[in-house]
Structures are given as structure tokens and as C-alpha cells.
Design a protein that fits this description.
With about 200 residues, the protein is of the alpha/beta class. Helices cover about 35% and strands about 20% of the residues. It contains six helices and seven strands, in the order H-E-E-E-E-H-E-H-E-H-E-H-H. It has a seven-stranded mixed β-sheet, with helices on both faces. Helix 4 packs across helix 6.
């Protein structure tokens, strides 16, 4: 007999399990309505330039920790030119006043790191890309599995983000997942998280 995943792959042309590939649906149910006091904050940038419909998205995301749990506070995604992206980073930081801004120091992110590090007072940290995006996502999956990551109830971007998390490995986009992975990696380091 054919299992659900094989059936979805063959007949529905959808190789993604409904429960999720890297992140499981039941891990993603934690919500908050009032943001707690955060002891450390970060925001991350996944940059791509161009307004063309075929361009990848650029994504900005903010989050923080209260020393115990992790809270994703905002995600903003769009197709922007490089000057637009720089302005959005500056305005996003003004809204969130993050302790650190993590930018993957590869491809278009390298220019963001170099320029904003030298022309602004923003706390830009270039993060070298190590391993595949999927392996980096798998490294923070235990935080979701242990129900340590909270998402804002009713956020307009929430449903799209959850779908991207569940479809990692087999979806078209992974930009939002990537910035949240950067945030959680940065915040986890600041809380001296040690897996059991």
C-alpha cells in the first residue's frame, strides 16, 4: 500500500508531507498577544536586489528572548532595489532597536554588510554561510520542537511564514525561514543555550 507522503507526491504533485518536512506542524502552535520584556534582541536580513517578479525576496525579521523563550516579533518581505533595501534596514532598526543585525555575509549580503558597517552606526554582524540552508534550519529545529519559539497571534505575515516553515525542502521560498534561523542562532548564542 502507498503511504500519505507517497500518495501526495505521485497523485497531488506535492512531495511535502502535510505535517512538515524539517519543522512539524505541532511544534508551531505557540503564540503570544503581549510581548514580554526581552533581555536580548536581534534582527536579520536576507537580501536580494531587484523588483523583478523573478527576483528572490528580501526579508527583514526581528525577534528577541527573555532568557528562557524566543519571540519572533516582525517579518517584512518584498522585492526591493538595493537603495530601498538599505533604507528599510535603517527604518526597521529604528522601530526595533535591536542589539545586533545579522546579515549573511555572502552574495548580495556582503555589500549590505560592507556598506552599512562603514556608513552607519548600525550594529551589523556579518554571518558567514556555513552548510546548507536546510542544515542551518535543522540546527534550530529543537527550539521549535521544545516549544521555545513563540509567534505573534494574528500577525498578517504569520500564515505565509508557517507555510514556508512547513514546506522547507520542497517549497519555492525559504527567505523568511532563513532570517528566523539567523535570529534564533544569534539569540541562542547570547543565552548560552546547551542542547540536552
Amino acid at each position: 500500500s502507498m503511504g500519505a507522503r507517497a500518495f501526495d507526491s505521485q497523485f497531488n504533485q506535492d512531495p511535502c508531507p502535510r505535517s512538515g518536512a524539517v519543522f512539524q506542524f505541532e511544534w508551531l502552535q505557540k503564540r503570544y498577544t503581549t510581548q514580554p520584556d526581552l533581555t536580548a534582541t536581534a534582527f536579520a536580513v536576507d537580501s536580494s536586489w531587484g523588483k523583478n517578479i523573478r527576483s528572490d525576496y528580501s526579508v527583514l525579521a526581528a525577534g528577541g528572548t527573555n532568557g528562557v523563550d524566543y519571540f519572533i516579533t516582525e517579518i517584512e518581505r518584498g522585492r526591493w532595489t538595493y537603495p530601498d533595501l538599505k533604507q528599510r534596514v535603517v527604518h526597521f532598526h529604528a522601530r526595533h532597536q535591536s542589539d545586533a543585525i545579522a546579515v549573511e555575509d555572502a552574495s548580495s549580503g556582503t555589500a549590505v554588510v560592507q556598506e552599512l558597517s562603514t556608513t552607519t552606526r548600525l550594529p551589523i554582524i556579518g554571518i558567514p554561510a556555513k552548510g546548507s540552508k536546510e542544515s542551518r534550519a535543522a540546527s534550530v529545529a529543537p527550539l521549535f520542537e521544545s516549544r521555545k519559539v513563540f509567534l505573534p497571534a494574528g500577525a498578517e505575515w504569520l500564515e505565509e511564514f508557517l507555510q514556508e516553515l512547513l514546506r522547507l525542502r520542497c517549497g519555492n521560498n525559504d527567505d523568511q525561514v532563513h532570517v528566523v534561523v539567523l535570529i534564533l542562532t544569534s539569540l541562542r548564542a547570547s543565552t548560552n543555550y546547551t542542547p540536552v
